Amino acid sequence: MISGLKDLKNLSDSLRTQSKLMPVLFVGHGSPMNGIEDNEFSGNWSNMAKEIPQPQAVLVISAHWYTDSTKVTAMEKPKTIHDFYGFPKELFAVTYPAPGSPKLAMETKSLISHTQVELDHDWGLDHGTWTVVRYMYPDAQIPVLQLSIDYRQHPSWHYELGKELLALRKKGVLIIGSGNMVHNLRMVSWDMIHGGGYDWAYQMNDTFKKLIESKEHQKLIRYDELGSGAMLAIPTPEHYLPMLYSLSLQQSNEDVSFFNDKLVGGSLNMTSLKIS
């Protein structure tokens, strides 16, 4: 116990409290191919890293770590996970050797009273994380961790848990929710794969943006009350919930700006946001 407290103190010393909060991102990560393509989305991820302060560490809530509890990666060297199939071999050859941070994992665990948090040594960085972060920080020198999404819990539960991560923003940790607001793979149109969406997808993209801009978070939490378009946009919640984590960290004096605001494949949007 004493050793653990010393580790937390050492981490607190290394991640000094800053005068300004680190921005928060929600990133529409889209296809794994964005992880190797030089396109408008990956270009904007690179540009975002130049626009915001360099973080001390990165914590990602990825749609692709969906578990029956809440976990945080706690290994020194997280592996690159290729959690997909049917893509070119070049994509499977990519590794992103960013370090982890067991100390930051311990601090993240200590901040969360909402639930018990498990320190995980088996996962790593899935494509919801590395396809984005490798463009932002290509040198892979900044520690990167993931926080899992407990699939048993209601959206409001995730929103409230996210609020408990605020102290990390004060210490220069970049928190990124990685998913997609509109994500219906069963309805993907290959005719629109490079751009374009169904009418309902455009409508829901606009609805989500308006609610985000007006800070109507409770309506976004209760997305199942937003009509049939919302049910088409969010047939399952795992890609939507990371956005609620990001929004939960917005302070009353902070604004939202959007980037990569585009529909692809008919039923997917890349719309992303920065809170600062």
Automatic annotation (TrEMBL):
Record domain Extradiol ring-cleavage dioxygenase class III enzyme subunit B: where = 38-226
Pfam families, per the entry: LigB
Cofactor(s) for this protein?
Zn(2+)
- Keywords annotated in UniProt: Dioxygenase, Metal-binding, Oxidoreductase, Zinc
InterPro entries listed in its UniProt record:
Extradiol_dOase_DODA (IPR014436), Xdiol_dOase_suB (IPR004183)
Gene Ontology terms, MF aspect: ferrous iron binding; oxidoreductase activity, acting on single donors with incorporation of molecular oxygen, incorporation of two atoms of oxygen; zinc ion binding
Q: Give the family, as the similarity comment puts it.
A: Belongs to the DODA-type extradiol aromatic ring-opening dioxygenase family.
Q: Which NCBIfam families has this protein been placed in?
A: PRK10628.1
Q: What is this protein called?
A: Aromatic ring-opening dioxygenase, catalytic subunit LigB
